[in-house]
Design brief:
24% strand, 33% helix, globular, alpha+beta, Aminopeptidase, five-stranded mixed sheet, 4 helices, 5 strands
Length: 148
Amino acid sequence: MIIRLATIDDLNSIKLLDKQWEAESNIGGESGIFYKKCITAKRVYVAELNSSIVGFSLFTLKRAKKGEYSSLKKGQYYLFVDYIFVLKKYRSEGVGNKLLKTMEEYAKSIKVTSLYLYAVSDEPERLISFYKKKGYDVSYVMMYKKFN
């Protein structure tokens, strides 16, 4: 498996992954124009296996505003993970781990000391366990209740 920066040639594969993600969880649904801008800005990594894109991640370099996160000082830079998506078939094969590790390494290379993300899944316990194993702490929990 190869983790690499996405190129414009990967755009259609990323859009297909986005549609799959949207179908699974109502997350995703971004436009091709959005992804094209992110690829051009070198903010998208892809996981390639046997010449197929099986996952992707997208991040934004941000600067903390006053009170944005309790662990950050105003003006401090951090990397925000906008998306990590891996096809269900490959989720237990280390693809997400490698995408996350690549973003962490990038953050360290530009002297950014924090990485933040929101995690959404139909399997929240599994997702929390995944990130905790990687050294992440939970700082925010959103709950919901549906009414008929």
